[in-house]
Amino acid sequence: MFEFDPYSPKTLEYTETKNGTLRGFRMKGIYTFLNVQYGECRRWEAPEPVKPWKGIKNAVRFGPRMFPGAVTGSAPVLTPWDSCGIAHEVYDYAEDALNLNIWSPTLEKTAKKPVMVWIHGGGYATGSAMEMQAHYGSNLSEFGDVVVVTINHRLNVFGFMDMSRFGEKYANSVNAGIADLVCALQWIHDNIENFGGDPDNVLIFGQSGGGGKVCTLMQTPAAAGLFHKAVIMSGVAVGQIGGPKNISDDLLDRLLEKYHTDSIDTLLALTPEELLDSVNELGKDLTAGGLMGWHPVANGWYLGDAREVGTLESSKNIPVMIGSTISEFPNMRIFNKHSYTEEQQMDILKECFPGQDVEKLAELFHKAWPEKCLTDAIEIKGWIDFREGTIQYLDVRAKEAVAPTYSYIFGYDFPQDGGRGAWHCADIPVVFHNACAYPENFREGLVGDLENAISGSWVNFAHTGDPNNQWLGTQWPAYKEGECAVMIFDKPCTVRYDFDRELVAFRNAMDLKITDKYTKFNQVIN
Q: Most exposed: 206, 215, 431, 496, by fewest CB within 10 Å?
């Protein structure tokens, strides 16, 4: 398995595309092509296919990433644990970084390997195709005998700003970042055979904002036929229905006022840094630190959230996997939780949720998660929105879809801090079969059958549309009306049926505002 050793021997390798010749490399049996340009773009306009080139283009190192939603003056000092949860790789920024990366076990055109296309998270504002060690595709390619692709695309003000008031060529600017993904999928369809892949067997998968982008592509007619399976990881939140409002109109009015103009030309003349600085200055009350407020908008090109408008006809025939982690974004958690008695855990719940029906909460939590510590219930505010949104999406799929849908929860307890439930992003290195690259208190208990079961589910789904595999130790049924099967990835893996719907409903009736001011058990990320 690949262990992120930059000194491993490499051989230069070449392949043809419809645009020209690429020079990549082969390391430990995996062919790698980095910073492959798939399109070209001008600010706020639709992407265009990349133009042909003469000679040979190097594809041996990662290219620039898109500008993030908020720009800081210097890179933060990071710890080993940061690479499990946030970006650790810092590459050059560019406004037009329409590039992708490819890993493949072969370059034979007749190999017809399944293609797994990763769409990164970070909402619609930040992130990149290679922001964590987890995103390196070599191990997944080797383990799954698949072609792995990761994509960069426009974000924030560059990818989701509504400039349609300035004319037809900006009509879809509010969805430009998604149009980039469609452009990338078209490039993959046209060229992936030269990398050993099958253009008729493409899976798209993404986490957090990447999962949301998968949902969006499922509702985008222009993407129909360019992918054949989809995996949504922690990507459906309950609050996405009916909003949140895209901030474009308010922000655009403020930008025009700042520059004393009513012309788009003034904004087009700004450097990317100048534009972002102005956005950060003028949109502090709109963007919540640069992350929120950016998202696709239904306009005919993109049809809207399937939970609101129904499933795009072509997507009804696409097999889907969808799930979340057990703890996602806890605003509170307990360290060394296994050291507390049941009575002490109950006292902690009462302390965290004053004035609430804690007894009922404990009853429903134990019913749903009998093997978990009761104190895990204090993390309820952080994870339940994703779980509720996922249930909503599953219920729509159960009614409307023809192809099967599979549901999961990553329920594993990591050994860190005496037991820590799987958090937002914790599943990414496991799916990519990269747990080996992380600290011992991350990979302990994961490397082996559990990582194989999880990564194997994604891989088998890519090959066949069915996630079942030898490491699960149990059969994973599809999610259907009246048979709401959920795979719990844990030790051991188990299947439960509609087991937490009552807990989710009870949570929605709770008043959790008090926890915003409660600091005793504040969450510490690293």
A: 496
Residue labelled with tokens 């690293």: 526
Nearest to 302 by CA among 181, 398, 157, 190: 181
Q: Residue ranges of the domains in the chain? A: 1-309+382-390+424-476
Architecture of domain 1-309+382-390+424-476 in this structure: 3-Layer(aba) Sandwich (3.40)
pLDDT in tens, 137-185: 999 999 999 999 999 999 999 999 999 999 999 999 999 999 999 999 9
CB proximity list for 79: less than 8 A, separation 6 or greater: 526
127 close to 120: Cβ distance less than 8 angstroms: yes
- Token pair 């502090």 is found at 284
Encoded tokens for 26: 């082969």
Angle at 497 between CA 476 and CA 311, to 5 degrees: 75
- Could you give the C-alpha distances from 181 to 153, 191, 380, in angstroms and in order? 7, 15, 33
Cis preceding-peptide flag for 272 (omega within 30 of 0): no
CA–CA distance, 343 with 353 (Å, rounded to integer): 15
Q: Cβ contacts of residue 18 below 8 Å, gap of 6+? A: 52, 190, 191
pTM of the shown model: 0.93
Asked if 388 and 504 touch (Cβ cutoff 8 Å), the reply is: yes
Decide: helix, strand or coil at residue 44: coil
Residues belonging to the chain: 526
- Which residues is 414 bridged to in the sheet? 420
DSSP string, 122-183: STTTS--TTSSGGG--HHHHHHHT-EEEEE----HHHHS---GGG-GGGTTGGGHHHHHHHH
